[in-house]
């Protein structure tokens, strides 16, 4: 298991937060995803044998937001 933080931009409300969380949680290999609207970050616990960082970023982008590694 791995944990990753993504910086997510474009979120402006709780609906945006929920949309990003659902996009991540429905990605195969993701155990949990918590999105902090105020911080603009998502913390994801996932199986790094079955999902890549690029796939997690792509899931956020498909939901209509931008994502990059936090740090």
Textual characterization of the structure:
The protein has 71 residues and is α+β, with helices and mostly antiparallel strands. It has one domain: Alpha-Beta Plaits. It contains 2 helices and 4 strands. A 4-stranded antiparallel β-sheet has the order 2-3-1-4, with helices on one face. A hairpin with a 4-residue loop joins β2 and β3. The two termini are 20 Å apart. The model has no long low-confidence stretch (mean pLDDT 97).
Structure at a glance:
Helices cover 31% and strands 35% of the residues. With 71 residues, it is of the alpha+beta class.
Record the SSE blueprint.
Blueprint lengths: L1 E8 L4 H12 L4 E7 L4 E6 L6 H10 L3 E4 L2
Antiparallel strand pairs: 1-3, 1-4, 2-3
Q: Spell the H/E element sequence.
A: EHEEHE
CATH topology: Alpha-Beta Plaits
- What structural category arises from helix and sheet content? alpha+beta
| Major β-sheet profile | 4 strands, antiparallel
How far apart, in Å, are the first and last alpha carbons? Answer: 20 Å
Average of the residue pLDDT scores: 97
CATH architecture, please?
2-Layer Sandwich
Overview features:
alpha+beta; Alpha-Beta Plaits; globular; 4 strands; 4-stranded antiparallel sheet; 71 residues; 2 helices; 31% helix
